[in-house]
Amino acid sequence: MANRDDILSTKMDWVTVAIYIAIVFMGWLNIYAVTYDPESDLSIFNLTINSGRQLMFIGGAFVIIMAILIVDMRFYETFAYVIYGVIMFLLLLVPIIGKEVGGNRAWLGIGSFGVQPSEFAKFATALAVAKFMGGIGFRMDQRKNQIILFVMIGIPMLLILAQKDTGTALVFTIFSVVFFREGMSPMLIIAGLVAGIIFVLTLLVNEIYLFTGIGVILLSAIMLGKKKPKRIAWLVAGAIAICGIIKSVDYVITDVLRPHQQARVKALINPDADPLGFGWNVTQSKIAIGSGGFLGKGFLQGTQTKFNFVPEQSTDFIFCTIGEEHGWLGSLLTIALFIGLMLRVIFLAERQKNRFARVYGYSVAVIFLFHFAVNIGMTIGLFPVIGIPLPFFSYGGSGLWAFTILLFILLKLDAHRMYVLQRI
User: Fold this and answer.
1) Quick one: which of 84, 57, 238 has its CA closest to 159?
2) Angle formed at CA 26 by CA 319 and CA 404, multiple of 5 degrees
3) Are residues 249 and 141 in the same domain?
4) Secondary structure, 3-state, 197-213
5) What is the pLDDT of residues 196-216, one digit of tens each?
6) What is the distance between the alpha carbons of residues 304 and 29, in angstroms, rounded to a whole number?
7) Backbone phi, then psi, for 298, in 5-degree steps?
8) Are residues 249 and 268 in the same domain?
9) Which is more confidently placed, 314 or 372?
10) If you average pLDDT over every residue of the chain, what do you get?
């Protein structure tokens, strides 16, 4: 049998690696476009601007890749719980000794250098979930196992919420899709989607109309179906639950959400109501993207970008630069690359020979999907602005390194999938 180094060189999925390099390179160029000043002579490599610092982060990412590929593949499963525990401990430290940036205390570091443990919690949770689900005798239909899994994803969610980083905390809800893939009843996901739809409808439609509609649907369901007491009881209970969600929306908006979060919800519903206030970010974002037309204004030629109309454009709103400078065609290429990456990850997950690797692969796919959909969705007004970066594209070392770790652990496992089979 060939040694593992030979297996790695011949079985590495170079298509995925190529997509990764393309996305990282495009992101770096667009970070430079955001900070470019035609009146200055600062080059893309200058360490005083974001593009120069991002290049350092990219160099760090390639060091991380080499380390991942060198380490024995069994390390990731063997020490999954240890890695999870260490990252959770770091999350506990953040509210105590962390640095506050942009109103959120989410960084650990010394001086100007800092890392965001919440970004690394994603791959740590993916490893721990995969380790637990890959155990001998695991069954997804057992209530005890389901509770343990939801506790696993609930711990980082709560710790990150304590840092006032609601957007990153929401990422962990996407693990429920992995649970569904491995055999959990889809009712939980369906219930979540229904609750979300009702929440949005409550913001758009008067409560009286909603209650009237629920009453009509309930009576119709009772009259047209079988008059069994158990069925009627379930229908009534469902209607009461829906009414409860409707009545809770106002409480959540006014008493649970903080002022800036309330503004984001208002901007999602009607950004034109206050275009110079809470609707500013989304309005300027859509203007920037729409102004690019079919081919865009050209690299480094974006006026919305140059005059800082869109805030946080190197991070949360990096997609605006694509739309403005490269137009519909550049946006399509960017989206195609991300979709290609996610489809490739799903393909890799499906061909794994053990459950640990498969579950981990699907965890990577859904995390990428959440970030991709929400980040681009919030730039065009489909989702509220919740501070979700675009993987490998947005400025920042913690995000780039964490997403790189996520992807290349999967590539390492995939490169050795036949070796695992031979051991078994």
Assistant:
1) 84
2) 95
3) no
4) HHHHHHHHCCHHHHHHH
5) 788 777 877 778 888 888 888
6) 17
7) 110, 150
8) no
9) 372
10) 85
